[in-house]
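Lecture notes, continued. The same structure-token format from the folding unit now serves as the input rather than the output. Read the line below as a description of shape only.
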């Protein structure tokens, strides 16, 4: 049995910062109305009162629930209608995990309106994108990316079917696929390959999902037709097909290749995925945050110094690369992929969501004196707005994996997971904070009553099953751990590579683990005297309005930073300040920065100690 992520109903966050951010995300999802979410689909179908020039706008409209959606969702935008699919995917996952009745009612309204749109359009077309956009695409005219926008509606329908078992959505998607297949069949292979060079989003992934759901050979035909030769063949030939190419055009295509392999078993798809990771990560490296893009394109391999700017680390790329790392971990079990996910969860998803408003930062600037630019609830609707609402509904599924009678705790977040081992139910509770003395923004003092902030992440894992029902529970040893973990448990355990393996005999087993860490510097590969400061998985940001040079030893963080403001009531805080400067700079976790100006990378002038 391969390693699998648990279904949405089997893993749920139980507290901490990720759950707070999920709740903020849920509040945003329910703040939007069905008709406004559907506005462009309804306009395309000619349904309802869509007299825009007569509708009020501004604060009075908002007060009466009539506030329209603008930005990329403005009628007339070439990508209009893309956000609805993201909303549906997020709502379906939230409903599956929590049973949210408000979102369920809203989703019912959306499905009803989509059904009405499809009927009004003649039984197939269900998109906000006009069919004429596909004609213009085929003619080589500027029309941005119609298949990208079309895919989002497909994605929403498929995710509602997969997470909630809603056959209505499967049938809507199946009927709509007929229209796309008829269009695609109108081109020879050479011409269609040229069409595929214009961003297609995750169309390939949808065809694989629909093949699995229906068994219809139509989707096997579409999988073959959507083989993007200029990308996939180059990867299979061992070429770098990524440097200076638009990143999030290709990541969804490779996620589609991953699904194609999982559904068809054809090895060519798997080889594409593995080669993509090789060139995207292994042979390219990352910023200290885990991200790798600048201006939405892939940076050159291990050449990041010249790519720090206002538009580094696009949120969509972060989210989709997390998904790709999840796929590869499930296939091969390499903890390197879990390390990658961890870095991007803390320094991507959290760092690019405003902790109070819940809004997204399209990019995460890494220039000196940067400032995050936050989106708005109804005025922007960037692509990253869509990946934001999905991302925060899917964190729990990345925390625990299952494999036969083995459970793997992959991410250290407060989460409860329920699954089966040896044919019987097993529950795993991962606890941090008060219960486990976790060191972080949510934590109280450890049980030892330390004088200063403990330099360790403390985790408690409780495993429960029927008496006599055994299970093996593995705990990932993070790559940032500075020394051997400290383990306290009465159950047998051993270190096995990058995992701690605990033998749960049945009944109730508890294990307490401390993962020690040190403040460390992480240099830019091509500019080793320029460093970022990282503690555990957290990248730190200096609150400063420009690039500043520090003096000290870049290999010895204590010559550069000292602990600062570490205690607040019952909490330990992650806070530092510079040492040896006339004007000090304070450091906080990058994912806590909201509107302050900040720098992540600092050039260091080496001082020689006599």
């Amino acid at each position: 049995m391969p390693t699998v992520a648990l279904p949405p109903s089997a893993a749920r966050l139980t507290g901490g910062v990720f759950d707070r951010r999920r709740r903020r995300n849920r509040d945003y999802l329910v703040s939007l109305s069905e008709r406004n979410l559907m506005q462009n689909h309804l306009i395309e179908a000619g349904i309802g009162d869509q007299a825009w020039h007569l509708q009020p706008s501004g604060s009075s409209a908002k007060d009466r629930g009539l506030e329209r959606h603008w930005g990329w969702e403005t009628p007339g935008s070439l990508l209009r209608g893309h956000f609805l699919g993201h909303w549906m995917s997020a709502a379906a996952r939230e409903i599956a995990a929590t049973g949210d009745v408000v979102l369920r009612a809203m989703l019912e309204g959306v499905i009803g309106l989509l059904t009405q749109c499809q009927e009004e359009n003649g039984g197939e077309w269900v998109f906000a994108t006009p069919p004429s956009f596909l004609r213009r695409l085929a003619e080589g005219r500027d029309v941005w990316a119609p298949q990208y926008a079309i895919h989002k509606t497909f994605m929403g329908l498929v995710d509602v079917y997969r997470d909630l078992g809603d056959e209505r959505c499967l049938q809507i998607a199946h009927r709509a696929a007929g229209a796309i297949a008829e269009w695609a069949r109108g081109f020879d292979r050479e011409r269609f390959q040229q069409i595929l060079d214009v961003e297609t989003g995750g169309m390939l992934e949808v065809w694989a999902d629909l093949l699995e759901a229906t068994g219809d050979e139509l989707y096997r035909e579409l999988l073959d037709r959507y083989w993007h030769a200029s990308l996939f063949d180059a990867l299979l030939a061992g070429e770098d097909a990524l440097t200076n190419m638009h990143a999030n055009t290709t990541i969804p295509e490779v996620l589609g290749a991953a699904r194609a392999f999982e559904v068809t078993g054809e090895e060519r798809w798997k080889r594409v995925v593995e080669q993509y990771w090789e060139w995207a990560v292994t042979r390219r490296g990352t910023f200290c945050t885990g991200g790798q893009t600048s201006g939405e394109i892939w940076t050159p391999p291990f050449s990041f110094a010249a790519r720090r700017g206002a538009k580094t680390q696009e949120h969509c790329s972060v989210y989709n690369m997390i998904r790709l790392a999840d796929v590869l971990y499930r296939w091969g079990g390499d903890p390197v992929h879990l390390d990658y996910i961890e870095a991007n969860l803390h320094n991507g998803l959290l760092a690019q969501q405003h902790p109070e408003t819940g809004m997204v930062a399209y990019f995460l600037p890494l220039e000196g004196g940067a400032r995050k630019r936050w989106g708005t609830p109804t005025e922007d609707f960037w692509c990253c707005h869509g990946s934001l609402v999905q991302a925060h509904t899917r964190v729990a599924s990345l925390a625990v994996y299952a494999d036969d009678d083995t459970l793997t705790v992959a991410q250290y977040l407060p989460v409860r997971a329920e699954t089966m081992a040896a044919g019987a139910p097993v529950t795993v509770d991962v606890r941090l904070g008060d219960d486990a003395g976790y060191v972080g923004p949510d934590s109280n003092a450890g049980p030892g009553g330390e004088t200063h902030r403990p330099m360790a992440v403390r985790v408690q894992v409780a495993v429960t099953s029927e008496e006599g029902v055994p299970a093996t529970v593995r705990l990932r040893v993070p790559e940032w751990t500075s020394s051997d973990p400290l383990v306290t448990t009465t159950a047998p355990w051993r270190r096995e590579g990058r995992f701690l393996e605990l033998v749960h005999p049945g009944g109730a087993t508890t294990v307490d683990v401390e993962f020690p860490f040190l403040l460390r510097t992480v240099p830019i590969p091509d500019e080793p005297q320029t460093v970022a400061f990282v503690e555990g998985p957290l990248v730190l940001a200096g609150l400063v309005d420009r690039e500043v040079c520090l003096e000290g030893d870049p290999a010895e963080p204590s010559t550069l930073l000292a602990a600062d403001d570490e205690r607040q009531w019952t909490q330990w805080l992650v806070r530092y300040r510079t040492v040896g400067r006339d004007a000090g700079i304070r450091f906080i976790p990058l994912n806590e920065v909201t509107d302050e100006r900040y720098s992540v990378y600092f050039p260091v002038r080496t001082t020689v100690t006599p």
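Point for the exam: DSSP finds 18 helices and 24 strands in the chain.
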